[in-house]
Amino acid sequence: MMQEQLRLQEHSTGAAAWKKFGPYLTERQWGTVREDYSPDGNAWNYLTHDMARSVAYRWGEEGLGGISDDRQHLCLAVGLWNGQDELLKERLFGLTNGQGNHGEDVKELYYYLDSTPSHSYMKMLYKYPQQEFPYEELRQENARRTRQEPEFELLNTGIFAENRYFDVFIEYAKAGPDDILLQITAHNRGPEAAPLHVLPQLWFRNTWAWGYPNQSAAPLLRATGAATAQAEHPALGRYHVYSDQPAALLFCDNDTNYHRTGGPSGTPKNGRYFKDGINDYLVEGDYTAINPHRQGTKMAAHHSLEIGPGEARVVRFRLSLQELAMPFADFDAIVAERLREADDFYSCMQQEVAADADARNIQRQAFAGMLWSKQFYYYDVTQWLDGDPALPRLPARRRKGRNSNWRHLHNEDIISMPDKWEYPWYAAWDLAFHCIPLAMVDADFAKNQLRLLCRDWYLHPSGQLPAYEWNLNDVNPPVHAWATWRVYQMDKKLHDGEGDTAFLEAVFHKLTLNFTWWVNRKDKSERNIFEGGFLGLDNIGVFDRSAPLPTGGYIEQSDGTSWMAMFALNMMRMAMELARTNPVYQEIAGKFFEHFLYIADAMTRGGDGQFNLWDDEDQFYYDVLHTPDDARTKLRVRSIVGLIPLFAVEVIDEELLNSLPEFTERARWLLENRPHLAQLVARWQEQGKGARHLLSLLRRSRLRNLLKRMLDEQEFLSDFGIRAMSRYHLDNPYVYSTPDTDFTVQYVPGEAESSMFGGNSNWRGPIWFPINYLIIESLQRFHAYYGDAFQVEYPTGSGKRFNLAEIAEALSGRLTRLFLQDSTGRRPAFADDELLQTDPHFRDYLLFHEYFHGDTGRGLGASHQTGWTGLIVRLLRYQQPHSQELNSTAGAATATQAPAQ
């Protein structure tokens, strides 16, 4: 067993807490709901980037390339100053939702390069300009631009001209669970010598200023020598701090500077050393801002460097629970050893990836991004609504405002984030997708994440999963059951066929409550047609589905109903697995089987036998608008809403059915006594390849017709995957007219042109990894039943026919093509940016964007959303780099396995 696997095992058994310290600092705490105490709920304006350096946060901490313990008592991150900037670089800069022409947007260049799952070794890169950072230019130019224009990025300012920047590599290595080594290597890429101030910063999260008796005593950092200190905390104990010499230790306190923020000031500034003290000392030359007694709750080891052209300088820092006589004697050897162990771990992990350095680099950086995107997330809604004893009394109306019906919610955990700057809060359906690739490197962490959202202090008493902090009541697609089942299967395979049924059973019971919530709350007419609302697809339809419709009434959602059919099948399959050892679950599996059949009936016959979501003329699924006069109108927008019925598919082996006689008898009775149900789904009784049975919303003919549209390059099929909307709507916009206005939906392959549905959201044409991943998996499931004989044209109109496994592999290839270098060395995701495409200090560093341009493949939206775009790690396992599109002759079925198996 490799060293990294041993560490994970030791952590799992409690023998050694290897994950006690990790990358749990967020990249942005300012501008979040948690830190918003405004009367109007305007989180972006209440606590700004400008105020962040001066305000002690209530609920969490942020830092540049930072780590903390898993309760975030003690934090370690990097500060930088080039001698030109107006402020110390302690945090990443970006625009708020109102400032960006496409919503919130980080305006920095940084890359997560490596991490083991125990965080025994971690590495990231921050690119720091040598000239004054163009804060105001970025604000003003983006404010000037319209939604129809591209975003103005840091690269567009010319700040990296002549390579006048530093590559700052931040590395962490653990000598032990409580012995952390930080190495900062700064490369001057420019033509001249340039100054750089490097400041490893250590501080305590402020838990003492809020008026709670058991948290009133502040911990203490104090110098014990010229370059040594101690960090003492009642919960953590005493840590010893060591810095390379020459270094000056600077101290202040992690307390709010009310003199700068305009808040109440209980005492004069004299004798107080606030959170922004180190910034003011270094940048403004205010020597009164730091504590001359060399103690406080925040400190920095100040290294003032002059780095020659092409030169690199190294700064080292160590934090240890044990006192060390020679803290740097073994430092280099430990860092080198942890890197070697990381290489060994990923070398084993990547055996299924073709022997291509580019593919392996992409996969390893994707894993790094996912592992770096863990965050300590703290949000107690009751305390947040009521306010703290030591703070001014909050307006009474706040108690009835945002998230006021979630008073039970208490989050204080390490959670996988979608993007630690743009989305530094968990989202229920994002998290489900994160767990698939995370399970490849750390199945225990993935399982714990899935358990987490089902805990009593997360799950609403009604059974609803919390969506995200801006609106916990919003509705995400119910993919939690799918992720639970897939992670269970992956973990079972890792353990030689022994499944963690305790995990499966625990999550299954809570998801039963969630399923019941959907049935009771999101089926207004009790016809098994669901009106989920937002469902994550916020910019896809005619109307804002989270808001009351301008027409009145409600939308009968093709996607909401299909998600529920998928949910029912996932629950049925989990119950069947649990029934192998506990027969009670046979009856429960039968109940979910019945739910699926009635949803399938509703999809086809509208639940009342009169109106359905399938359109015979267009051979496609549409949403239906149900107005107060009881009229129904199909909203003929060809989007992924109509493709989601593909996801409700399950294949059951005959052997499993034979082992569950009660379930099989119940299924047989339903199909014999409810013949209208048996006719509306793919035939359950009919055995397919390998004596298997199929449950699906799509009969063979409908499957063919749906795939005909999906695989048409003039509609959904892009060079880089399946578009969110058919390109048909580029020349044929869909218009829905009301007496007051016309609502138009048009194909938009890039950033959103409408702000109706939110800032930088766009589902109107780009390529999204989560939907593409589910399409690929669904095609593989259909192939498992139909086998090689079932073939369709790919692409539509080409005259070339392939089985569904081959098409799934081809779609995987189109998605991986976004990142892989082509024959000329270019990556489509980098588009026409020559610096990213060709510069040796840029071209091999990857960004994992939120979504991708539907025609060119350019990366768009959040730039570090490794969360669901991290699914690339699964697809790379089955792709040959630079593989050509399927040839004209369909060969034997590929051996590609379903990604989640």
From TrEMBL:
<dbReference type="GO" id="GO:0009311">
    <property type="term" value="P:oligosaccharide metabolic process"/>
</dbReference>
<dbReference type="InterPro" id="IPR012341">
    <property type="entry name" value="6hp_glycosidase-like_sf"/>
</dbReference>
<dbReference type="InterPro" id="IPR008928">
    <property type="entry name" value="6-hairpin_glycosidase_sf"/>
</dbReference>
<dbReference type="InterPro" id="IPR054491">
    <property type="entry name" value="MGH1-like_GH"/>
</dbReference>
<feature type="domain" description="Mannosylglycerate hydrolase MGH1-like glycoside hydrolase">
    <location>
        <begin position="423"/>
        <end position="527"/>
    </location>
</feature>
<feature type="domain" description="Mannosylglycerate hydrolase MGH1-like glycoside hydrolase">
    <location>
        <begin position="697"/>
        <end position="866"/>
    </location>
</feature>
<protein>
    <submittedName>
        <fullName>Glucosidase</fullName>
    </submittedName>
</protein>
<dbReference type="InterPro" id="IPR004888">
    <property type="entry name" value="Glycoside_hydrolase_63"/>
</dbReference>
<dbReference type="Pfam" id="PF22422">
    <property type="entry name" value="MGH1-like_GH"/>
</dbReference>
<dbReference type="GO" id="GO:0004573">
    <property type="term" value="F:Glc3Man9GlcNAc2 oligosaccharide glucosidase activity"/>
</dbReference>
